[in-house]
Amino acid sequence: MLLIVGYGLGLLFTLKTHREFFAAVEHAAEGEEPWPIRLALATLAGVTVLVALVSEIFIESVQTAAEAFGMTPAFVGFVVGALVGGSAEMAAAFSGARKNRLDLSAGIALGSASQIALFVAPVLVLLSYVMGPAPMDLHFWPGAVVMMLIATLTAGFITNGGRSAWFVGALVLMVYLVFATTLYLLPPQGR
Length: 191
What we know:
Layout: H1 2-17, H2 37-69, H3 73-85, H4 87-98, H5 102-130, H6 142-160, H7 166-185
Helix pairs in contact: 1-5, 4-5, 6-7
């Protein structure tokens, strides 16, 4: 419950009380008009339904592929699921980076991670008490906790400077590949 409250307070902070901290310099192209709110909401709803359908198909097919390629459940959850589940955010972040909008790109990436950690995971745990075969918890194996700590520290160091270069991005990808390799070759024991 505290994680969900923390997420709500974060939304209040960024969208209401301190929105000037998060206002980016306008980068709209000349002649580019913002979408009407109804069109934007209808598009969001349509894309959400399509993503849900694709996710169902993906979940069914990834189980077979995971067995065929010898992937561990931890690898599938932390790497494959995260890449596919975050593909929409990644596309938007890449688009922002291509337009030299690193503030937008970093904001999308960090906002997505915060949303999963502070809202989606706790809501799924709470829903598991109402629906599902057994209640879930937020008890993670020590390796996952260490990886999340390293990822959080890395994100903090990268975004704290306010500048970046391609080499920094390559190093961040190397950290992710070390995690992926570890999860593939040395899966957690007993979970």
